[in-house]
Structure formats: C-alpha cells, structure tokens
C-alpha cells in the first residue's frame, strides 16, 4: 500500500462505517411531528457546517505550509513550484494554484523584473501589466492549473478587486486571507447557468529563518476553489441529498452574496436552519432547507441526531488523522529542503529531525487517545443499530431516551475532537498582537458562566469576583481561551453541594532591569490540588483511565499550558492558605503604544481558532 493510500485509508474506512451505521438506524424509525423535522434541519446544518469548516482548515493549513516552504527556498524555480504543489491538486474544488509577486507601477521596473524572473524561473515568462489603481502590479509568475483550462502566467492580478483586497490583507496581517466570491477568468466563457462562484485563499510569503532576506515580504501563494464543488464534496452523504444547501458570504451583513446552491428538489422554506462558518477574515452562512420528499419521508422520525452526529464524529476523526499525518509530511519536506550551505544544512537537519520525532510521537498519542475515547459513542451507535434491527416494538418514549444517550455521548466526543485539534495546532497558530483589556474580558467570561448556571438553584450558582486587571498585549483569542478554561476548571471542581467561589486578580512581578511580568490568578475555594500532582495535571490525560466518561478537563489544562507558553509566559498552581487552589499564568509586560486594540471578546465557548 502506498503512503498516500495509508494516510487516506483509515479515515475513509471510519467514515464509511459511521455513514452505514447511521443509515441503518435512520431506516428503522418512523414517527410523526413537525418539531422533529425542524430539529433534523438544525442538526444537519451543524453537521454540514462542521464538515465545511474542516475543509477550510485543511485548505488554510496546506497553503500556510506551501508559503513556509517557498519562503525557505533561496530562489524558487517554476519546476520546484510544480513539485511543491503536486499534493495540493487533490484538495476538493481546487481550480488552480499560483505564486504572485509585487512589482512597482513603472515600465522600467516591470522590464527589470521580467528579466530577473526569467533567469530565476528558467522560463520565457512575459509580464502583462495592466493599468493599476494601487501603485503596483501583482504578476502571476508560477501557475498550476487543476481543472481550469488555459493559464494565467504573467497576468496582472491587481486588476481584480477581490484578489487585490485579500492579497493586501494577507500582507498586512501575515495570515491567510480569503476573497469575496467572484467568477474565475477561466469560467467566464461558459454559459451563465454553468458558471460557479469561486474564492481564492491567499497566503503571504516571507524569507525563511535561514534566508538572506529573513522576514522580508516576497509575494503570495494562492489557491482558487469553486465553492459549488467544495460544498458538494463535503455534503456528499444521504442526509444532504434530502435537503437544499445554500452557502452565503455574510461578511457584509447588509449585502450578503450567494456563493453556491446544491438543489436536489423543491424545498420547504419554513423548516430551514442556518450555521456559520469562518473562512479567514470572511464569514459564511450555510442554510439547510429540507426537500418536500425528505419531509414526507422523515417527518416524525427521530434518527437524525444519531445520523448527523455520527457522520460529524466520523468526519472530525478523519480530519484529525489527516491533519496530523499531513503535518508530519510537512515537517519532513521542510527538513529535506532547508539547504543554504553545508554547515547550516547540518544544523537545520538536526532541528528538523527532532521536530519530526515529536510529530511522530504526537501522532501515536493522538491516534491512541482518539481511538480509546471514541469507542464508547461508536459502541452506543452500534448497539442501537443492532437493537433497531431486532426490535421494532419500542415506544416513542423508549426511542427518545436512547437517542438522548447517544446524542450526549456524541456531543462529548465532538468536544474531545475539538480540544485535540486545538491542542495540536496551538503551537503553530500565527499570533496577532492586540491591546487587550483583561478586566472586560474577565467580566464577559464571568457573565457567561452565570448564564450557563441559570438553571441551577440560587445557592449553587457560581460566584465570581473580578478584581482590578491590567491591559496587556497579546493574541486576543488565545488569551480568552486560557482565562475561560481556568475559570471553567474552577467551576467544575467546586465541592459537591456548594457553589464555586472564584476570585480573579493580577499582580506585577519582576523588576525594570530583569523584566516585569503580569501574574494573573484564578483563586477558588474548591478541592485543591495535591502537591505531587501540581505539575502532572497540565499533561494531557494525566492519570486518566481510557474508559472514563468524556468531557474531563485534563486536556483543557494541557491546552492552557500550551497557550501560556505560546504567549511567552508560564503557568502553575499553588495552594491557597484559606482553602482551595490558585491557578496562575504570567504574561510579559509590554508597551501598548501603537498596538491596535482588540475588538470585543469572542464568546468563551468558541471551539475553533481564527484561521
């Protein structure tokens, strides 16, 4: 079996098993009720949005890896570009891949650039400048077509407003940007009813650590995707064939733009459901509307939870295995290609080999953990399938009770996979420096905890006191995740029968000469942490049995440790003399002058990082 077949074989097998089991359960149940049809639409919207989000993360990760690899080359030839992009041609919906560079809006500068690029690329490249309104040209110097005819080699991308806006954003932020929808040049010759809306993922390229132009902007690598093909590939399962899927770009809420429509037949608009998907700086909205035929067949049935959630769990597991394996391939390729001179090459290979061993260890650990932790929900789905096959006399109440158990298991498995993805990706996330008001952030987190506990009696609701907190500089989303998880950990471990009593405070440590740091503390009056476990609790699944209930906070604290280190600080736990524990983390003190202010904090329950 080839390496590529080995990478894809297990995810496809798991996906096929999950779809087959869910289909058997769905076929065994027939009940009545309009409410169940509405719930089915909402569950399907969530599942399809999760699958589409996974595809967006896959595209973003692949493009970031390509940009880093190009930046590590002293001078990229067209032949090297074709080799580096070979594995990306299998991405669903990809139309073409390009490498674009900026050139000043001056005829002499264009002529010099053409001469230099021909020598570098070993091609007879001809640059085709067009009138530019942004003061520079952006020429396509390497091009790989996938399912598009012709070539854009030498074309000036500055004439397309959507591409210009995304490329400018990618250069300014250092992160992958996504265009608003537009029709590819290669598709504009097709009949109107055959044209698809497309989007372009754009990643900035800068000189790598070992290059003479280290950190200097070189240009952009980009990948064009036809959104209709992408949505059809992520929605290719029986539940999706019973619903109309419409994908909108809602970045501008006042003027949403339709990206694509998958329409299997007449739909019932009154039962439609929606879910949001984040793609770079763009916001997409997926609208799911069941068909008339699906409503006639499915109304009153209660298999949708097991069907959609089972497929979502299978897809997430497949995405996790593919992501980690692709990361391993990315690390190996970077090690092989990091060549500057002989001495630097040896040192670079040693560092790369160490990173590869770490990736292999993480791959083994993640595979074992995911296999163990997802056995319970998959076993429940299998058991329910067997029961449905042998027993057709269960009452609606019995079915509802069993569906509730399965949904709870699968929801917990979904959260576990989300945390595993976040744990694996924290170290590689690009940091966006912003000024953050910790007081406002902490008050938002406290309010969300109080809202989550609204169904408890007054005496058992958590009491969170937010003391004076500073304004700091850092990555807003990661800092919000760190603080929210520590507060949630304190709430979860409150003594039985007593409310959680939590205090958030800050202190300034160090000196002006040795470097000052902020120490942020989350104090609780909970059960405390034994001395011999104050280090191990920050390790993933430390001391945990493989068959315990899903949803433990062991991985959450491990994520907190990774985030603290990524932000340049540290984390730990001390004993509180008054009872309970003091979880703390540190942040370097930095000037906020000239640093943009972070927007209002995102919801504390957000599961995915910004792309």
Number of helices: 14
Structural class, from secondary structure content? alpha+beta
Distance between the first and last residues' Cα: 34 Å
- Global geometry: globular
Radius of gyration in whole Å, from Cα? 26 Å
Description:
This protein has 611 residues and is of the alpha+beta class. Helices cover 44% and strands 18% of the residues. A five-stranded antiparallel beta sheet has the order 2-1-5-4-3, sandwiched between helices. A five-stranded mixed beta sheet has the order 11-13-14-16-15. A four-stranded antiparallel beta sheet has the order 7-6-9-8. A hairpin with a 7-residue loop joins strand 6 and strand 7. The radius of gyration is 26 Å and the shape is globular. The relative contact order is 0.10.
How do the helices and strands line up, and which of them pair or pack?
Elements: H1 3-28, H2 34-71, H3 78-84, E1 94-104, H4 107-121, E2 136-145, H5 161-173, E3 177-178, E4 198-206, E5 217-226, H6 227-234, E6 243-249, E7 257-262, E8 273-279, E9 282-290, H7 292-298, H8 304-337, H9 342-373, H10 375-390, H11 396-425, E10 434-437, H12 438-452, E11 463-466, E12 471-474, H13 476-492, E13 501-509, E14 517-524, H14 554-566, E15 571-575, E16 581-588
Helix pairs in contact: 1-8, 1-10, 2-8, 8-9, 8-11, 9-11, 10-11, 11-14, 12-13, 13-14
């Amino acid at each position: 079996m080839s390496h590529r077949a080995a990478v894809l074989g297990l995810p496809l097998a798991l996906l096929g098993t999950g779809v087959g089991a869910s289909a058997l359960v769905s076929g065994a149940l027939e009940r009545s009720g309009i409410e169940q049809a509405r719930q089915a639409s909402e569950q399907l919207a969530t599942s399809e949005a999760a699958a589409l989000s996974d595809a967006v993360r896959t595209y973003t990760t692949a493009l970031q890896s390509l940009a880093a690899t190009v930046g590590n080359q002293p001078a990229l030839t067209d032949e090297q570009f074709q080799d580096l992009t070979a594995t990306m041609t299998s991405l669903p919906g990809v139309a073409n891949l390009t490498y674009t560079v900026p050139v000043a809006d001056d005829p002499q500068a264009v002529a010099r650039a053409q001469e230099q690029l021909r020598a570098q690329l070993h091609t007879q490249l001809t640059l085709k400048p067009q009138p530019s309104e942004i003061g520079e040209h952006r020429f396509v110097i390497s091009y790989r077509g996938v399912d598009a005819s012709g070539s854009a080699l030498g074309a000036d991308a500055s004439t397309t407003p959507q591409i210009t806006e995304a490329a400018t954003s990618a250069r300014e932020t250092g992160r992958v940007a996504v265009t608003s929808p537009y029709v590819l040049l290669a598709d504009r010759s097709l009949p109107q009813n055959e044209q698809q809306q497309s989007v372009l993922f754009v990643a900035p390229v800068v000189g790598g650590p070992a290059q003479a132009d280290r950190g200097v902007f070189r240009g952009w690598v980009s990948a064009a995707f036809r959104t209709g093909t992408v949505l059809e590939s992520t929605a290719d399962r029986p539940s999706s064939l019973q619903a109309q899927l419409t994908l909108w770009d809602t970045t501008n809420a006042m003027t949403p733009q339709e990206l694509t429509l998958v329409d299997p037949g007449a739909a019932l608009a009154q039962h439609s459901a929606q879910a949001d998907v984040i793609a770079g700086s763009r916001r997409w909205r997926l609208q799911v509307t069941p068909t008339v035929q699906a409503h006639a067949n499915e109304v009153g049935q209660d298999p949708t939870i097991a069907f959609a959630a089972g497929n979502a769990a299978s897809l997430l597991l497949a995405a996790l295995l593919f992501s980690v394996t692709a990361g391993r391939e990315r690390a190996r390729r970077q090690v092989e290609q990091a060549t500057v001179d002989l001495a630097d090459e040896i040192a670079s290979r040693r560092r790369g080999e160490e990173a590869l061993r770490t990736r292999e260890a993480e791959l083994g650990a993640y595979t074992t953990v995911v296999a163990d932790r997802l056995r319970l929900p998959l076993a429940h789905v299998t058991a329910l399938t067997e029961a449905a096959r042998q027993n057709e006399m269960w009452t609606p109440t019995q079915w509802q009770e069993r569906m509730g158990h399965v949904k709870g298991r699968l929801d917990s498995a979904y959260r576990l996979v989300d945390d595993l993805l976040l744990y694996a990706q924290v170290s590689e996330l690009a940091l966006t420096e912003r000024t953050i008001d910790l007081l406002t952030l902490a008050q938002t987190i406290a309010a969300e905890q109080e809202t989550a506990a609204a169904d408890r009696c007054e005496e058992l609701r958590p009491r969170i006191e937010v003391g004076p907190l500073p304004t700091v500089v850092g990555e807003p989303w990661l800092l919000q995740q760190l603080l929210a998880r520590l507060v949630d950990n304190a709430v979860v471990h409150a003594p039985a029968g007593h409310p959680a009593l939590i205090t958030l405070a800050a202190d300034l440590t160090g000196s002006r000469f040795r470097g000052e740091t902020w120490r942020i503390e989350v104090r609780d009056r909970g059960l405390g942490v034994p001395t011999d476990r104050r280090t191990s609790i920050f390790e993933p699944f430390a001391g945990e049995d493989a068959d315990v209930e899903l949803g433990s906070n062991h991985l959450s604290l491990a994520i907190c440790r990774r985030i603290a280190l990524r932000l340049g600080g540290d984390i730990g736990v001390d004993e509180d003399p008054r009872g309970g524990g003091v979880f703390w983390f540190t942040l370097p003190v930095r000037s906020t002058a000239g640093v943009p202010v972070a927007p209002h904090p995102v919801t504390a329950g957000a599961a995915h990082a910004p792309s």
